[in-house]
Design goal:
The protein is α/β, with parallel strands linked by helices. It has three domains: 125 residues, no CATH class; 301 residues, 4-Layer Sandwich (Purple Acid Phosphatase, chain A, domain 2); 99 residues, OB fold (Dihydrolipoamide Acetyltransferase, E2P), CATH 2.40.50.140. The protein has 20 helices and 20 strands. It has a seven-stranded mixed β-sheet. Helix 16 runs parallel beside helix 17 and helix 18 packs across helix 19.
Length: 691
Amino acid sequence: MVEEQDILNKRQILLRLLGAGINITPNSLDLLLNANLKNKDLEELIREISFLSNFKSHLTLDILNQTKYSKLVGADVIKENVKENIKEDTAGDTNEDSKEELKEDLKENSNKDLHEGRSSKNKEERKLKSSTPIVPKQKQEQIKSEKHISNKRKQQMKPKNRAVVSLESESINELLSTNEEYVDTQTTEKNPQKSDQKLNGKPSGNIEGQGSISQFDRDIAKADRLASDVLDDGMMQEEDEEIELIPDSRLKLQDVGGLTEFNPIAKDYAKQIEVLKDPTQNLYTEGSTKDFYDVTIDKFNRLKDIIEKSYTPSNNLLPIRKLNLLPNSKEVAFIGMVTNKSVIGRNRHIKIFLDDPTGEIQALVRNVSENNNLYKKMKYLLQDQVVLIEGYLKVDSKRKSRIVFINDLKWPDISESHRESIPDIPLSIAFISDIHLGSTNFEEKLFLKFIKYIRGEVGNEKTQKQAGSIKYLVICGDLVDGIGVYPSQESELTITDIYKQYNYAAKLLSNIPDYINIIYIPGNHEPVRNALPTPSVDKKYCQPLLDLGITNVGNPSVLNLHGIKTAVFHGDSIIDLNTSIPGLSNEHPELAMKEYLRCRHLVPSYGVKTGIAPTGRDWLVLDDVPHILDTGHVHINGLGYYKGVLMVNSGCFQSQTNYMKTLGITPTPGRPVIADVKNKKINATEIDLVG
């Protein structure tokens, strides 16, 4: 794979960090500019700091001092920078020029090369000496394993005798200029089209790590202001035309009861629960490099099978090794896993590296009018996704190089011909998540009102009839707040014993009528491992729930509930997607859920903040299309349809925590979602317990 040779400028560094949910202080930004970073250097830095125990989404000089970059300028220089920063804080914020300069960078027209180097003095060569990060030994091993796998994964997927053909980035424009049949004259205009790759939402970390607020120093405040200024500068969210939005279906629950006799129809039906997919019993792993290789190959093969069943390309599919052996230019089609994506040249073409088990090749999406729709879709293309590519393979025998000019790209999406039959049943499913029992912010009154609703004790005749149809209750993770999930959590708990939290949960859930069957998966606050997929909660913790007959499965799982195929996933990677794709935000979790369905994977990119365990099988692939995809995690309700699939994020029963305030998260507690079947379509209604 050809590495980027250009040194990153201020704009590139800042936008990549913001995309990873990291705010950087001005002094730290200056230090990285002087380091003459390349893409690979910055990715390694992001990966390194993510393992530091004291890293809280702000890249400060103190954090940099725990990385190999502390050696770059020496401890004395770092101390001097800190002293200067203190002086600036005393005199007031003097970094306005820096922010204004950054705004000007963002307003540059599209003919500025994204890979333009910095000034000559910043291009002086500096050799970075590696040093062991100041982290516990266990974290050091994780970092080594992460880097080893990142560097070796592609080599493992390639046979030693395969054909490898390289193409330097400088030769791409030359190839374009010589490929007269496939080059639009607009690529040489003075004002080429601008890329729509902008940041459209504020970066956010994992809202589930709800630690207490500390007194941020002025440096961190500057970083937040700098990020806010950048993200607010003309970055409007685009409306997604592919999602069928659900009109305001919120039903306010009247706090009255006894209007009619409660005769629940669900009581007349026997339960029909079939667990179609549960990773609990199949999660053994040694954590070796081979395990990572095996799960990557399994992911590739599963998604490749979905693509081959869904699409018939105009040309025969070829493995990449054969593409690299073709002697002449021709139309081709192949399936590959994305290993890198970058914007190149003044015309802002998009270069993509892809591989399969046989080899690696690079491709190009040209920023020309004929590719307008394809080019816009590229913002949704992420590393590690598996896609079908159709295009023109340009072979340059003289330079011994080749590249595919992409005409079409398809994800392992839900095919247009897919039509899942929907059973005609008078029953419904209730979805809730993120209750956080044991937290000081648990909304107990709202939860008790929900139980009254489900028992038919409040509401009018319409809501009582709806409540009487509920046959299944799905709890999509974080039923309890857990113990030791984040620093100083104990001060924000009303119940500080995990066993007592589950006893309290069983006491509340025991008030739900026996004819309603409860399904429960863990979130990131339950006593299970952090890396996905996670097993069901061990019975030593949740035995009181099992005594109630609750179906206890892992995360993610797929269940057949009276003929309704329901995929249940806590949604751990939603925030990763929101910080990786322009236009996505925590306020609309259904947009991220659409990406799950588009790429048919619940954690599309490896190596972001959501951990993935290297099991032999990739349990995060959505092999089959569900009727309903249910998530939680972000504490904000979201509803929508994507190609016939109902997407539900069922909010929470926890009020805004101190940590949420620092991220600008406004939760929507007390809005459970009820899904039922009407006119051969699954409909969704939010029950507003607050109103």
